[in-house]
Each structure stands twice: as structure tokens, then as C-alpha cells.
Design a protein that fits this description.
By secondary structure, this protein is of the alpha/beta class. The protein folds into 3 domains: 56 residues, no CATH class; 162 residues, 3-Layer(aba) Sandwich (Rossmann fold), CATH 3.40.50; 79 residues, no CATH class. Helices cover 20% and strands 33% of the residues. It has 7 helices and 19 strands. The strands form 5 sheets. The chain has a 7-stranded mixed sheet, sandwiched between helices. It has a 4-stranded antiparallel sheet with strand order 4-1-5-6, with no helix packed on it. It starts with 6 loop residues before the first strand and ends in a 7-residue tail after the last strand.
Length: 316
């Protein structure tokens, strides 16, 4: 059945089918607009309407769109924590942009539903140069991974400007990071060399706790907090009328993946560090191989946040 040369601003239930007497339309026709065969976009905007394109068989389908930010995370993780990470660490405040994913196929399907993503964050269990999604652990540059994102012609149709990976030790294999980013024509990709730990902390304050007492209780957590945390004076005021419970999210780098107990004993501080303590390492694509050799030759891996710039002026 031939493709019909029209585009409709309408609902997903609009159908356009061809019968013996010609084309027959059903559904919402109010916003139907014919578009020239050139395929040029229509001149006025309808941001609240989804653009639908006629396809083979006459059934309309959603057109690919651009999205500014997308945060994908392991569906087994605590959504409350992931929302805090998205907002506190990446300034992604729209809950609809924070999406749970349970498999590599689901990851690819979600990413490929957009023609362009300005900022993509991947929050999954991981290892050096790879991620664990569902029950499958895959290297980021594996052929099986690339196949998920390519069409029959071997082309990746989704473009991504910036990629951040919040997973354990991913940056220890920068060559895999670079190959993964190149598929999407990314400007840059970033990740950490150490394990990352995110914890949701709950604290109870007793009725009558004053500002000084509250400051002392919160002191061990302050440099690790990535979600909003009220000032001690505000909490003290609230404690005047009764006991108070608060919850917040902390994040830190862990050399061997272990979780910390607070306050952290002084002998453990060199193995457990706030994310702000990570050395910021920014390199250009030609230097990836030398960084990989440096990591391979090192006996102890330092805590670093590595950014690979794949294009000129990418760090701007």
C-alpha cells in the first residue's frame, strides 16, 4: 500500500486507510493539516499536539523528537533516590525525564525514540567500561550493544550531545567510553573511576533539639549531600513543636565498593570520598589511548571523574 502524502496534527487514534473507493479517514479531523510532498515542516507550532506521519498501511505513527534531558536508571533501584540524583546532581527536575529501564533492549528502544538528546544520564550498576542492565552485563563497545542502536544499514540515527554515566568504575576503560560515545556523534562523555554509592539517609530529631545540636548531628553528612537539606536553624524551629524526621540522599566514591557508616572513621577517609573530591580529568579523543595505558599500568587507581571530549571546543 503506497505512502500517503499527508501529515496530521491529531491524536494517536486517527486512522487513514485505503479502500476500493479511495482513502478513508476516521478519528479526530479537527487538527488535520495537509503537508506538501516535499516533507517540509509546517509553519505554525502546536507544541501540545504530537506530529503524526502517515506510513505504509495507512496507520499514523509518532514522529521522532528532540529532548533536552533524559535520565535512565535501573528499574530495581529506588526511584526516590534516582529522582534526587537527577535533580541534585544534574538539575533534571522533570520526573517524566527520569525513566526506569529493565533491559538493554528497553534502553535502546527508549534512546532510539528520539532523534536527538541534548543530555543523557545513565544510572546503572557497572564495571570497567561496561554496564549491567537486568541480567545482562555488556561492554559499552560490544558488537551486540552497537547492533541494538543501529538500523539495517548499520547507522545510529539518534544523536546525543552529552553523556554522563553514574556507574561503578566505568571510566577505568576510557577506550570503551569513547567508542560508545562516537556511535551517537556525542560531543563528550563522562564517568568515574571508583565505585559510586548513593544512600538515602533518615534522621530523627527530638522535640526541643536546638540549632547547635542539629548542626552537630548533620555535620558528618554535609559534604556528601546531593539532595536539598534544610538549614539547621529551620530544622530547630520545626523541632519546637515536636519530634522531626527528615530524609536526604548522600553520594560518595568508594575505592572497593563498600558502603560507609557515619561518621566515617578517620582511617577509612582515604577510601571513602565525596564526589567533589574526585580529580576532574578532561582529555581530548586523541589522548584516550595514552590514558588507558596509564590506568592499565597503575597499581592503585586514583579517584577521578573523567570527561572525554570527542569534538573540538567540547568543554565549552
Amino acid at each position: 500500500m503506497p505512502r500517503r502524502p499527508l501529515c496530521s496534527f491529531t491524536n494517536p487514534d486517527f486512522l487513514s486507510t485505503r479502500g476500493t473507493t479511495g482513502w478513508h479517514d476516521s478519528g479526530d479531523r479537527v487538527h488535520q493539516v495537509k503537508i506538501p510532498r516535499t516533507g517540509r515542516p509546517f509553519s505554525f507550532e502546536q507544541p501540545k499536539k504530537r506530529i503524526l506521519l502517515a506510513k505504509k498501511g495507512g496507520i499514523a505513527r509518532s514522529a521522532k523528537q528532540t529532548i533536552a534531558e533524559l535520565f535512565l536508571y535501573d528499574s530495581d533501584m529506588d526511584r526516590r533516590v534516582q529522582l534526587k540524583i537527577a535533580k541534585g546532581k544534574y538539575n533534571i527536575s522533570n520526573p517524566k525525564s527520569v525513566v526506569p529501564i529493565n533491559s538493554w533492549k528497553a534502553l535502546a528502544k527508549k534512546i532510539l525514540s528520539f532523534s536527538k538528546i541534548d543530555h543523557l544520564v545513565l544510572s546503572f550498576h557497572a564495571y570497567s567500561g561496561g554496564m549491567l542492565i537486568g541480567i545482562e552485563a555488556k561492554d559499552l563497545d560490544a558488537k551486540s550493544v552497537k547492533k541494538l542502536f543501529t538500523n539495517k544499514k548499520g547507522i545510529v540515527t539518534t544523536k546525543i550531545e552529552k553523556i554522563d554515566i553514574d556507574g561503578c568504575n566505568v571510566a577505568e576503560r576510557p577506550t570503551r567510553l569513547a567508542r560508545f560515545a562516537k556511535w551517537f556523534a556525542a560531543r563528550q562523555i563522562s564517568a568515574y573511576t571508583w565505585s559510586l554509592v548513593f544512600q538515602r539517609i533518615k534522621i530523627k530529631f527530638a522535640k526541643g533539639n536546638n540549632e547547635g545540636e542539629i548542626k552537630k548531628i548533620l555535620a558528618p553528612y554535609r559534604k556528601f549531600v546531593i539532595s536539598s537539606l534544610q538549614k539547621a536553624a529551620t530544622l530547630a524551629h520545626r523541632c519546637k513543636s515536636g519530634s522531626l524526621r527528615i530524609a536526604f540522599v548522600i553520594a560518595y566514591g568508594s575505592e572497593d565498593g563498600t558502603h560507609a557508616t557515619f561518621p566515617i572513621p578517620s582511617r577509612q577517609e582515604k577510601y571513602i570520598k565525596p564526589l567533589s573530591s574526585a580529580r576532574e580529568r578532561s582529555i581530548n579523543l586523541p589522548n584516550v589511548a595514552s590514558l588507558q595505558k596509564e590506568y592499565d599500568d597503575s597499581i592503585i587507581q586514583s579517584f577521578e571523574h573523567v570527561t572525554i571530549n570527542l569534538k573540538k571546543n567540547a568543554s565549552r
